[in-house]
Design goal:
With 143 residues, the protein is an alpha+beta fold. The protein is built from 6 helices and 6 strands, in the order αβαββααβαββα. The protein has a 4-stranded mixed sheet with strand order 1-2-3-4. A two-stranded antiparallel sheet has the order 5-6. Keywords: CBS domain. It comes from Shewanella scandinavica. This is CBS domain-containing protein. Residues 9-65, 83-141 form the CBS domain.
């Protein structure tokens, strides 16, 4: 039986609002063990903010002895100024192979999962790789 996204997705999704400042996103990334935030506006998915997007948008001098007021100002940008808009999404019933192909074809690190337009989860390349390895282990072939 094929593995579907509903079997492996994270349902505890952390979101930020489009008008949140990057300080909010940075605090979440600093505390969390994940690298993608889903951006919503009135519960509708609008974009994805990756930790890489955040790091590109803020000053590399933050937290260093060279930090200036101007460096700190980079944290005042809004999430919508940095996020990836119109993210590629999948439905929970999509199989592992299809989701993997979508990630690879679009050169992205995560797929928000929508069911009837409602955000229900997120799946990342690590989730897909972990599922693949578990599948291989169950079928007695090494990963």
């Amino acid at each position: 039986m094929p593995i579907i996204i509903a079997d492996i997705m994270s349902t505890r999704v952390v979101t930020v609002e489009m008008d949140d400042r990057l300080t909010v996103a940075k605090e979440i990334f600093d505390q969390a063990n994940f690298h993608h935030l889903l951006v919503v506006d009135e519960y509708q998915l609008e974009g994805v903010l990756s930790e890489r997007d955040l790091l590109r948008a803020i000053s590399p001098n933050l937290g260093s002895s060279a930090e200036t007021a101007r460096d700190l100002e980079t944290l005042q940008k809004r999430v919508h100024q940095v996020m990836t808009r119109n993210p590629v999404t999948v439905a929970p019933h999509i199989n592992l192979d299809t989701a993997t192909r979508i990630l690879l074809d679009n050169d992205i690190g995560c797929l928000p999962v929508l069911e009837y337009g409602k955000l229900v989860g997120i799946v990342t390349w690590k989730d897909l790789l972990r599922a693949y390895c578990e599948y291989r282990a169950q079928n007695q072939s090494e990963c």
